[in-house]
Amino acid sequence: MSESVEVVKIAVFNLLHEQGRHKDFDKEAYHLHVPMGATPKDGPSAGVSLFTALVSSATGQPVAQNLAMTGEITTLGEVITIGGVREKLTACKNHNISRVILPMSNRKHVKKLPDEFKKGFTIFYVKDIKQVYAVAFPDEASNQDSVEFKEMLKEKHGIEYDQFEDDYFHKNVVEGESIMKQNQIEELF
Q1: Range scoring the smallest mean pLDDT among 64-68, 69-73, 104-108, 138-142
Q2: Domain total for the chain?
Q3: pLDDT 10s digits, 80-106
Q4: Percent of the chain having pLDDT more than 90?
Q5: Residue 102 phi/psi, 5° resolution?
Q6: How do residues 19-53 score in pLDDT, each as one tens digit?
Q7: What DSSP letter does each residue of 36-95 carry, written as one string?
Q8: pLDDT band per the 50, 70, 90 thresholds, residue 8
Q9: How far is CA 52 from CA 21, 67, 125, 186, in A?
Q10: Residue 116 belongs to what domain range?
Q11: Which end of the chain is more exposed for a tag (fewer CB within 10 A), N or C?
Q12: Is the confidence at residue 78, as pLDDT, over 50?
């Protein structure tokens, strides 16, 4: 994990320097607290998330809502393959997260997943940290769920994406359960 953090610090400095926003980044002290993961090798796939957190902290910009991300970052700022795509998308589904950033090289793994499983997701496939930045830090006026926003990302930044059909299971069952629980509580009174 500490190696991933060092790579992320270099990537963030390079991006901010390129944007002309680096000012005192290398002189500031930043603390990244990462709770212990399930397995010792969890660090590499956290590179994209660590990068986004550090950019947010350094710039004061909030990260887009309803967005999960995973991917390993190289010292050149490339986003490379990770393992456990299905498990990571399952976690997103369990937490009602519908927008996900994955490495472009993992697109083949998503294609192998059952169509029913992929329902409700918009997955952005990125190759480098500039593309991660474009998805994670959109203009405030952007409607991130709109087709126009996604097409702008594709045209301007070369970001590929898959938009899967809506997941009506969540709307009908999960939200329906909360309505049912609310009705049961009201009946108790």
Answers
A1: 138-142
A2: 1
A3: 999 999 999 999 999 999 999 999 999
A4: 49
A5: -130, 155
A6: 877 666 666 666 666 666 555 555 568 889 999 99
A7: --SSGGGSGGGHHHHHHHHHHHHH-PPPPSSEEE--EE-TTSBEE--S-HHHHHHHHHHT
A8: confident
A9: 15, 11, 15, 43
A10: 2-188
A11: C
A12: yes
88 an active-site residue?
yes
- Closest listed residue to residue 67, CA positions, set 8, 115, 134, 165: 134
Residue 125 and residue 179: Cα distance in Å, rounded?
Answer: 36
Question: Which pTM value belongs to this model?
Answer: 0.80
Report the amino acid identity of residue 36: M
Calpha distance 132→159 (Å, rounded)? 9
User: Which residue among the candidates 2, 23, 57, 88 is catalytic per the annotation?
Assistant: 88
- pLDDT of the residue at 189: 45
Handedness of CA 138, 65, 123, 32 (dihedral sign): positive
Q: Which of 45, 93, 98, 127 is catalytic?
A: 45
In the numeric block, the tokens 């369990």 are attached to: 94
Concerning whether 130 is annotated as a catalytic residue, the answer is: no
Instruction: Kindly tell me if the per-residue pLDDT of 132 is higher than 60.
Output: yes
Q: What CATH number does residue 150 fall under?
A: 3.30.230.10
Q: What does DSSP assign to residue 171? A: I
